[in-house]
């Protein structure tokens, strides 16, 4: 991977690469007669999101790569993207299905704040029509940055999945709620699913998904609410363990998460097996704890489909893995064996 910056500003005293810390190699550019250069060994990624930090004495500006027109919106602002040969966006992004309908409301339970939820339904599906339900943590960002409801609409239009609803959960207090909060989990498992079932005709087992802390929470909700919840997709789940995640130990809720994770790792049997899809970047800091979690869930009797991808901890990586990871979970629970949706 080669990066260059040719600033015409003689005041520039240094340039460095800002990217995911899991990428090995140096970050500081070297200067030659034509500008600033950095070369990294191929880390085995299909794409890399990055920015440049341009230093002028004690001041520093973070900028996109002016030589690269390829950019992406992320949860932390716009980034330049280096796409390797062979990388392609998912085919479903090119489909143009009907946009569907969005219905916002709130769920009241044990949390100090009500939980805002927006339910997406495909065109033609009424509230009284029986349909499966996908519940999504960090729902607004999943929809905006990973195009989740577009994936769902395209899958329904292609006959890959049956018509279904998507409950996009808004994370008001994300760190507190998505860190094994008993109050949040009880709110979603009890009052939340009850309210959704009263408002809409929910058919079949609910599937819950999320990424990072949301992936942890999706699994915890699945374990808490089974068999009402039948499936989970956890992408880059934050399954913190002290032996793997010492760098995260300063996180306010680290101890609560690590204790909860250990209780799952120690399980040897389940009375309510879940279909669990898991994806994680092969270079991610989270990959070791995801491997441990996948092995533990299998040992306890859950049906686990674990995939490692050639990307890192970002919404585009999670978008690109929706098919087949989410498709497999949903079809396993919502479609008869060997049947079309």
Automatic annotation (TrEMBL):
Stored Gene3D superfamilies: alpha/beta hydrolase
Protein name according to UniProt: Enterochelin esterase family protein
Source organism of this protein record: Phycicoccus duodecadis
Pfam family name, one: Esterase
PANTHER family: ENTEROCHELIN ESTERASE-RELATED (PTHR48098), IRON(III) ENTEROBACTIN ESTERASE (PTHR48098:SF3)
